[in-house]
Amino acid sequence: MIKLPLVALLLCCALYGWRQRALSPLVGFLTPLTCLIGSALVIKPEWSSAAAKMLGVGRGVDLILYIWTAISILILANIHFRLRAQHGMITLLAREIAILEARGPPNGDQA
Amino acid sequence: MKHDKICGPRPPASPVARKPIRAGRLPGPRSAQSAAGTSVWIVIPSFNEGPVIDRTLASLGPWLPNIAVVDDGSSDETPRLAEAAGVHVLRHPVNLGQGAALGTGIRYALLQGADFIVTFDADGQHRPEDILMLLATARQQQADVVLGSRFLGASDNMPQSRRWLLRTAAAYTRFSTGLELTDAHNGLRLFTRKAAQQMRLRQNRMAHASEIVEWLASSDLRVVEAPVSIVYTDYSLGKGQSLFSSFNILWDLWSSKLYQ
User: A106 and A81 share a domain?
Assistant: First the structure.
C-alpha cells in the first residue's frame, strides 16, 4: 500500500513542476516527465529492473535512486531560478528607491 | 534626441557596420568644453571605494556636476566622500552588484536628459582624458556605443595572468557573439541616449559586461572600439576579477538562459 502515497507524492511533484513552466520551461517540462516515469516505476517495479538492464545501470533500485536524484536537482534548479527572479524584483525596487532619494550637488546644479 | 545634430545623418546600415570599428588616436588635446551643447553624464558604480573615490572624482572635475556615483551598499565612507565632491549620489539600500549599479546610474542619467552616458570605474584605473576620446569617436564614427579597449591603447602594470584572462574572455566573446572585440570587459564605455534607452541589464553582478556585448551583438546599434589606457595599481588589482570569478560569470550567463 506504500505505492499509493508514493505515486500521490510524485504526482504532486509533477504538478508543481508543470506550474513552474512560465518561470523556466526546462524545469516545467523535465520535472513532470521525470515524476511520471518515477510513478510508472513505483506502480510496476519490474519495469525498473528491465529499464535498468536496458540502460546498463545495474539494478532497478539504482535507476529509481538516479531518477529521484534528477527530480531533486530539477527542484533545486527551480528554487535557484525563483531566487534569481526575486533578486531581479529587489533590484528594481532598490533602483527606484535610489533614484527617488538621489542627492544632487549642494548648489543644485543640474545638467 | 540630439543624435542627428551631433553626428549628422546616420549612414545606411550595412553588414560591415555590425562589426566594431577600431578608432585611431585623435591628434591634439581636447577639453571637456568640446562637449558643450550636449549633455554628457559619467556613471560611476562604487562599492567600498573609500580609499580612492575622492581622488577619482577630483580627476573628473571638468565633468561636474554631471557625474552620478551609484553607491552599491557600501559600509565605508564612499557615499559621504562622493557627496562632498559635489556629484550626484544614488544609494542602493543593499549590495546588488556592479551590473545593478550601472543600470541604476544609466537610468538616472537618462532621466536627467543625458545625450551621452559614459561608464567609468571608481577604482581610479581609467584616465579621464579617455572620455574625450570616446566622445570624439562616437561623433566621428557615428557610433551608438563606443567600447574602450586597453589592448588597442595601453595598460600599465598589467600582470601577465590578467592579460591572459582578458584575452581569453575576449576570444570567448568573439566566438559566442561574432563581434570582433579586442577587450570585452572594460568598464570604460560610452552609450548614446538611443543605445542606453534600449539597454536592459539582467545581470546584477560581473556578468553584465558579457551581457552588454551579447545585447550589442543582437541589436542593430553601431558599435565601435576605441583605444583607452588602464593604469593598474595594487588597489585596482585587489578589487579586480580572479580566475574563479570568471567561472561565476559563465555560470550566471548560462543559467540566465534557462529561465525567464
Answer: yes
Q: In chain A, helix, strand, coil percent, each to 5? A: 80, 0, 20
The answer to whether residue B50 scores a pLDDT higher than 80 is yes
Can you tell me the distance from the alpha carbon of B92 to that of A4, in angstroms, rounded to the nearest whole number? Answer: 51
The range of the structural domain enclosing residue A37 comes to 1-44
Count structural domains, chain A.
2
Same domain, A92 and A62: yes
Pick the range with the lowest mean pLDDT from A10-14, B92-96, B161-165: B161-165
Q: What is the pLDDT of residue A80?
A: 87
The residue with greater pLDDT, B229 or B252, is B229
**C-alpha dihedral over B209, B212, B218, B223, to 10 degrees?**
-100
* Residue A53 belongs to a domain: no
Cell of B133: 576620446
B85 to chain A: nearest residue by CA? A105
| ipTM value > 0.95 | no
Judge if A37 and A70 occupy the same domain: no
Whether residues A95 and B104 touch (CB distance < 8 A) is answered with yes
A63 and A108 in a single domain? The answer is: yes
Q: C-alpha grid cell for residue B181?
A: 572585440
Lowest pLDDT segment from A54-68, B80-94, B175-189, B231-245 = B231-245
Say which DSSP state B49 is in.
Answer: -
Same domain, A34 and A68: no
Looking at the fold, whether A101 and A62 belong to one and the same domain comes out as: yes
Using the beta-carbon criterion (under 8 Å), do A103 and B88 form an inter-chain contact? yes
- The 8 Å CB, 24+ separation contacts for A64-69 are A64/A38, A67/A34, A67/A37, A67/A38, A67/A41, A68/A38
Flag if B104 and A81 touch (Cβ within 8 Å).
no
Same domain, A33 and A82: no
pLDDT for residue A108: 56
Same domain, A63 and A105: yes
Other Cβ atoms less than 10 A from the Cβ of B139: the count is: 17
Mutate to test the interface with B, among A99, A100, A101, A109 (most CBs of B within 10 A): A99
Mean pLDDT computed over A2-31: 86
For residues A75 and B97, give the distance between their C-alpha atoms in angstroms, rounded to a whole number: 26
With a cut of 60, say whether residue B21 has pLDDT above it.
no
